[in-house]
Amino acid sequence: MSSGLDGVEAVKDQPVHVVLTDLQMPGIDGLETIDRISKIDSKIIAIVMTGYGTVDYAVRAMKAGAFDFITKPFEPDTVAVVVRKALDVYKLKQENHLLRKAVRDQYRLEHLVGTSAPMRMVLDFVEKVADSDSTVLIEGESGTGKELIARMLHFNSMRRERPLVPVNCGAIPESLMESEFFGYRKGAFTGAESDREGFFQAANGGTLFLDEVADLPLAMQVKLLRAIQEKRVRKVGSVTEEAVDVRIICATHRNLRECVDKGTFRQDLYYRLNVIELRMPPLRARL
């Protein structure tokens, strides 16, 4: 192609996996070309070729979404190696895209089985609140499908392209809860050989599903409340906080209001979690 604009038009007309673009071109430069191509198909892998082998240009190319940066003059074998690596990355992106689509399709609303009146009410509930960012509390007996509803809420929301992180609150030892939820810095404790993100960071931009939330110990409830209120978390061993954008969905087989009355669950956390409430009908009510 004689220009970046020609390349952009070619991508519109035919399937492309990898694009090799010069940096300096008439019309639009290589960085603008990459930007426009990525808006057409984000899976396309871009490689920049340039005679300006400075760190500044390399950084600009990478920020624009380039996979790699080749400085002129170069050997054909060098380009071949980079292109083969780029094709491997493209295949991974394609596989990831197909897997995400398969998961989303699995949790489409019309796939919820149940024609009884109570289950139709549940389906109506999911349709109404899926796109809300409000916290959802799902209560119901064991085996009634609480996690299924949580997954349907996520995969039918605007956050469906971001992670859904399920957490079984009753399966984490109390001594590990803070580091599991908020992550830790290298050297924070014995065995912390590298930085690690917690559940909140892993779910950033998506949904954090807290199953059996009533099993959280009181000490952890205080920390969870603060993280939800502030939308910021601090890794164990760190002095700085980081912002997180997470939607919280909780589930429990217990009556959380009764747990508050008994003193085993904090009232302020209960009200923070119980913004939208859904009680799953028992199986005996939907024969």
Question: How is this structure best described in words?
Answer:
The chain is an alpha/beta fold and 287 residues long. The mean pLDDT is 85. The strands form three sheets. The chain has a five-stranded parallel sheet. The protein is built from eleven helices and ten strands. α1 (4-13) runs parallel beside α2 (30-40).
Strand content: 15-25%
Shape: elongated
From the alpha carbons, calculate the radius of gyration and give it in angstroms: 25 Å
* Terminus-to-terminus distance: 65 Å
Q: Kindly report the average pLDDT value.
A: 85
Helix tally? 11
By secondary-structure content and strand pairing, the structural class works out as alpha/beta
Low-confidence stretches: none
Secondary-structure element series: HEHEHEHHEHEHHEHEEEHHE
Largest sheet, strands/sense/barrel = 5 strands, parallel
Biggest β-sheet: strands ordered side by side in the sheet = 5-6-9-4-10
Residue share in helices? 40-55%
Tally of extended strands? 10
Outline the fold blueprint:
Layout: H1 4-13, E1 18-22, H2 30-40, E2 45-50, H3 55-63, E3 66-71, H4 76-106, H5 117-129, E4 136-139, H6 146-155, E5 164-168, H7 177-182, H8 199-202, E6 207-211, H9 218-230, E7 232-233, E8 242-243, E9 247-252, H10 256-262, H11 267-273, E10 276-279
Parallel strand pairs: 1-2, 2-3, 4-9, 4-10, 5-6, 6-9
Antiparallel strand pairs: 7-8
